[in-house]
């Protein structure tokens, strides 16, 4: 015990200096955390004022806060005398080993950054990506959360979204409805074309510009196929499509125009 007291008395200046550095290092960490929260808060507020996508705000905010706090940790370690160059080298070697073990996770992080930078999808948009069709809820660091029309929540790895085709159904204001209507060969083509055009033009949700199109597209084995292509607003796509199919069937029945369907003739041969 006496030796410990003697050592403390002999090294008072060093201990006081180290204690001051340690307190300052703690202060640096506290200030760093405050700065990270403040900067992230200001950035989030400004991005919300500019109506930036919520997925982008949460993703960028998490990355920025992490970077600032890591910088504060490095400053605090440097202030107490830790050789940060060697520390960074050790972190680099450890990061390489971890990176090799977590290639898939790092790929998802990089893919998340690309999704945020180029924004092929946004929160609230209905897309077909990563083999899933649904509405984008959130874009996180590792995965994108999507909700299907039947209310299933699907977590899709970001790398699968970036690595494949992305179909975005909401990016354009207008959308074309593509219907193929087959009629009997005995039907009058001009009468059929007029009936189809009357049905689609009588719907107020169908736009006059671009102009709707009704054309013969194929002479099939048992039917003459018409392409019916009206344009509508994106939000009216599905209700308009369903209503047009129902009304087209009713109108063709009224006009006496037959719609062929697969049939099979069975011949029975009676042997004596």
UniProtKB/TrEMBL annotation:
It comes from the Bacteria. Gene3D superfamilies: 1.10.287.1260, 2.30.30.60, 3.30.70.100. Residues 105-171 form the Mechanosensitive ion channel MscS domain. Keywords: Cell inner membrane, Cell membrane, Ion channel, Ion transport, Membrane, Transmembrane, Transmembrane helix, Transport. InterPro entries: LSM_dom_sf, MS_channel_1st, MS_channel_C, MSC_TM_helix, MscS_archaea/bacteria_type, MscS_beta-dom_sf, MscS_channel_2nd, MscS_channel_C_sf. GO terms for cellular component: plasma membrane. It is a multi-pass membrane protein. It is found in: Cell inner membrane; Cell membrane. Belongs to the MscS (TC 1.A.23) family. This is Small-conductance mechanosensitive channel.
């Amino acid at each position: 015990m006496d030796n410990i007291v003697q050592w403390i008395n002999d090294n008072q200046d060093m201990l006081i200096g180290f204690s001051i550095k340690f307190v300052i290092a703690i202060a640096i960490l506290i200030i760093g955390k405050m700065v990270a929260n403040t900067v992230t808060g200001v950035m989030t507020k400004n991005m919300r004022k500019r109506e930036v996508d919520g997925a982008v705000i949460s993703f960028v905010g998490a990355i920025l806060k992490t970077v600032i706090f890591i910088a504060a940790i490095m400053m605090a370690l440097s202030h107490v005398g830790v050789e940060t160059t060697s520390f960074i080298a050790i972190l680099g070697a450890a990061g390489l080993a971890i990176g090799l073990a977590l290639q898939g996770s790092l790929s998802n992080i990089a893919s998340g950054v690309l999704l945020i930078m180029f924004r092929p999808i946004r929160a609230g948009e209905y897309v077909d990506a990563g083999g899933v069709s649904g509405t984008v809820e959130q874009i996180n660091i590792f995965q994108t959360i999507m909700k299907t029309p039947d209310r299933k929540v699907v977590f899709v790895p970001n790398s699968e979204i970036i690595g494949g085709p992305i179909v975005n159904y909401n990016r354009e204001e207008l959308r074309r409805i593509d219907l193929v209507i087959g009629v009997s060969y005995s039907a009058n083509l001009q009468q059929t074309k007029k009936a189809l055009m009357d049905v689609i033009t009588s719907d107020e949700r169908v736009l006059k510009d671009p102009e709707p199109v009704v054309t013969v597209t194929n002479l099939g084995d048992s039917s003459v196929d018409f392409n019916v292509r009206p344009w509508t607003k994106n939000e009216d796509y599905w209700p308009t499509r369903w209503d047009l199919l129902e009304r087209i069937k009713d109108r063709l029945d009224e006009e006496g125009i037959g719609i062929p369907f697969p049939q099979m003739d069975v011949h029975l041969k009676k042997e004596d």
